[in-house]
Write a structure and sequence with these properties.
about 650 residues, alpha+beta, Dna Topoisomerase Vi A Subunit, Chain: A, domain 2, 5 domains, five-stranded mixed β-sheet, 27 helices, binds zinc ion
Length: about 650
């Protein structure tokens, strides 16, 4: 559960709004008061306790949840509203420290140092007479000048103070060099020495292209260790970094696929051979932060493993982590309330390829570069690979091992979102362990019910009644609208033009009933006009608490990218549908209120409702006409696409 939901769960909207709207009184199932946002004598401001929402049926026609209320009331941005309400609700936000500015300055300085060090190493590799041996090494690996330059590959001289002297001359203190990881400090503080000496240097950059650390490979047999990395520090976290992502991200986005190799030498070789969608983990099993990072750019991952690590326990653990990481915040499922919730299900396409015995990707790519594409193409889907590897070490004739196989694999099968696929693997497992598949299916369903999350109390339903179509639910309309804008940022303008041409308001935050979606829309709107909008998601412009939602929306796009002309044609209609849904919800609410009024003999109230219902229906007609004008067959297509 995200902080927004946690806050909403702790604050009651009626109590909260009553603090701002003294006239708020109970009227049937709802509460009614004078709208705080426009002057009125007859109350038309309604709060709905059941859905924890509010709506003004008067002049402003606004509505939303507790967040949008306080944002309108106090003029807060989403971030401010979040802090304010978190405080009221007693929910602790994971804040950065109060010394943000100081920490940023410090980080900036370390980035400068590491970047200067990278230039230093690079120029040594290109020019230093001492680097002859290193240049030969580069040539032997088959890395060309373009690769050397693109990755700013370098050489650390065989001296204790080569880099140190260079950087001290630029005015940096020893302590800073040590903090940046390029210097090893000593007790007396003035005699630290270069960490990297006589090594081939590979700068590690983050996805934005900032150098954050180094990988240093030994050039001679007697040197140990063979691979030496920058230490963990304020800049460099090897469990979160992905080597090459800054260079590979466009190719990953374009191909919709990221190939992950084990070492940076593998990634360099792939680049050299023209395979540009390849990144490398930093000597750790694939981690959760790494996968979240990748999910911003693609929906399909191929993990290329060295043959000797392919079946190891560490690799399986890594894959299991990957499986779990990929399930988070990926799928949006509509709820009975007309909202949605995210369901943790395995929805990304993770495939595994193991290389021929004794070969790593570097060797393979150098020996037969043209075969790489086919190798990647043959990658096994995660579940197949997992089943194969888990069962390979078991004796499936033995009851104990059968039980172990079922216990290990059942959680994986349970998270397969597509029921046809799930059935396929269930049958496969049944054959493997020679257990009747009905027994396994019962086990699957029993386990699914046991793990139904309490947070889903409104929408929990028994596993067997889950409609098949839920398997590939695309998320709510709002999320898909955002996904299209993220995927095709240039279209916002043309979409608005089409709406205006139909005498319809441009897309705005009010169109998003969900406050996080509204805040994300604002960020996307600002980002869409920046020059880099096509390459970098709007990560800087959003509140850190929106990251989860942003990742979910990006995943939605990666799972279903659409061509530009499709987005230009369909997005205006999608906006109209979002507005239609909102109006329909209002009409339902008004009908309920009208019934309440009649029951309490409030004739005026009932009349007011009737007038408002007819107004809302007029507005529906206007939307429908605009929709028809945009396309005759449009609505049917939208139904098919988004109702699933
Ligand atoms: Zn109002």
């Amino acid at each position: 559960m995200g902080v927004v939901d946690e806050i909403k769960g702790r604050l009651d909207i009626v109590d909260f709004i009553a603090g701002y709207v003294p006239s708020l009184t109970k009227a049937g199932k709802t509460c009614k008061g004078l709208c705080p946002f426009h002057a009125e004598k007859t109350p038309s401001f309604i709060v709905f306790p059941e859905t924890q929402t509010w709506h003004c049926f008067g002049a402003c026609g606004a509505g939303g949840d507790i967040f949008s209320f306080i944002m309108r009331q106090e003029g807060y941005q989403f971030s401010e509203a979040l802090r304010f309400l978190a405080d009221k609700a007693g929910v602790l936000l994971a804040e950065r420290s109060a010394d943000d500015a100081e920490a940023d300055k410090r980080r900036q300085k370390l980035l400068e140092i590491v970047s200067l060090a990278a230039s230093f190493f690079h120029s040594r590799l290109l020019q230093s007479p001492q680097a002859e041996f290193a240049r030969n090494y580069v040539a032997r690996r088959g890395l060309g000048a373009e690769t050397v330059q693109t990755f700013q590959l370098g050489y650390a001289p065989n001296r204790w103070d080569g880099l140190k002297t260079h950087l001290l001359q630029k005015g940096y203190a020893e302590a800073d060099l040590a903090a940046a990881g390029v210097l090893i400090a000593r007790e007396d503080k003035s005699s630290g020495y270069d960490r990297f000496r006589d090594r081939f240097i590979v700068p590690i950059r983050n996805e934005r292209g900032q150098t954050i650390g180094f990988g240093a490979r030994a050039l001679r047999d007697e040197q140990t260790p063979k691979y030496l990395n920058s230490p963990q520090n304020a800049l460099f976290d090897k469990s979160a970094a992905l080597f090459g992502l800054d260079i590979a991200k466009n190719a990953i986005r374009e191909s919709g696929q990221a190939v992950i190799v084990e070492g940076y030498m593998d990634a360099l070789q792939a680049y050299e051979q023209g395979y540009k969608n390849v990144v490398a983990e930093m000597g750790t099993a694939l981690t959760d932060p790494q996968l979240k990072l990748l999910k911003r750019y693609a929906g399909r991952f191929v993990l290329a493993l060295d043959a000797d690590s392919a079946g190891s326990a560490a690799t399986l653990r890594g894959i299991n982590t990957a499986r779990q990481a990929l399930t988070e915040g990926v799928k949006a499922v509509p709820t009975a309330q007309g909202g949605f919730r995210y369901e943790g299900r395995l929805d990304a396409d993770l495939r595994i390829v193991s290389l021929p015995p004794g070969r790593d990707p570097d060797d393979f790519l150098r020996e037969s570069p043209e075969a790489w594409a086919a190798l990647v193409e043959q990658a096994l889907p995660l579940v197949d690979y997992y089943i194969q590897t888990v069962t390979a070490s078991l004796n499936l004739e033995v009851a104990k091992d059968k039980a172990k196989a079922v216990a290990t694999l059942m959680p994986v099968l349970r998270e397969i979102p597509n029921s046809v696929e799930q059935e396929h693997y269930l049958q496969q497992l049944a054959r493997l362990v020679t257990i009747d598949e009905r027994v396994l299916r019962a086990e699957l369903e029993r386990a699914a019910q046991k793990t139904a999350r309490p947070a889903d109390r409104y929408s929990a339903r028994p596993a067997e009644t889950k409609p098949q179509s839920a398997a590939k639910t695309t998320g709510g309309l709002e999320e898909y609208c955002l996904a299209m804008l993220l995927g095709r940022p240039g279209t916002l303008n043309s979409v608005n033009k089409k709406l205006v041409a139909q005498n319809i308001d441009v897309l705005n935050t009010e169109d998003f009933a969900d406050v996080q979606n509204g805040a994300l829309f604002l960020a996307v709107k600002h980002w869409a006009v920046t020059p880099n909008a096509t390459t970098d998601p709007p990560l800087q412009t959003t509140d850190p608490h929106l990251e989860g939602r942003l990742a979910g929306v990006l995943a939605l796009w990666h799972n279903r990218p659409a061509p530009l002309e499709y987005v230009e044609r369909e997005l205006p209609k999608l906006v109209l549908r979002m507005r239609r849904n909102r109006l329909e919800k209002q009409i339902r609410e008004l009908n309920q209120m009208q019934r309440d009024s009649l029951q309490t003999n409030d004739r005026d109230g009932a009349l007011q409702c009737r007038r408002l219902i007819s107004e809302a229906k007029d507005n529906l007609n206007i939307l429908d006409k605009a929709h028809d004008a945009l396309s005759i067959t449009g609505r049917r297509r939208m139904e098919e696409t988004f109702r699933g």
